[in-house]
Target: Immunity protein Imm1
Amino acid sequence: MSYDLYFARREPGQSWDEVLDAVDEQDKPLPPNLPAWDNIVTQTRELLGEVKIFEYAPNWELAHEASGISVNHWEGGWEMSVPYWTHGDDARRVVDLLYKLAAIVERESGFECFDPQLGRPLAEITDTAKIVEMFDVVADRFGRR
Model:
């Protein structure tokens, strides 16, 4: 079970439900954006330190073992996830890193980030306390890491 962030291009006035439905119905992949991928990898290393990279075109994945954060560039799309491993202050640090990295992915990819757990785009999320609470609940349910 993971906390997920999605990325998509949204037209002015287009709802996130419309965007996500269109992504689900998309029948052919987008072209990969390798310059954006390279920039994201570089900036992720600056933010998180050592990361593992898995490249199997048309899919690229970046994984940070210590936090569990992953960034995926699959068939031209983007998504991020992190397992609910952490609790309390550790969860707050992971969530802060996740959102900092999401801002990097937004900037470099040109896609907008959407948090389906909160039902809002990244730009509208100013307080991550509710997210940390979710981590606490799930971590307690499944046992803390």
In short: The longest strand covers residues 2-8. Residues 88-109 form the longest helix (22 residues). The beta strands are 2-8, 52-56, 59-63, 70-74, 77-83, 112-115, 120-121.
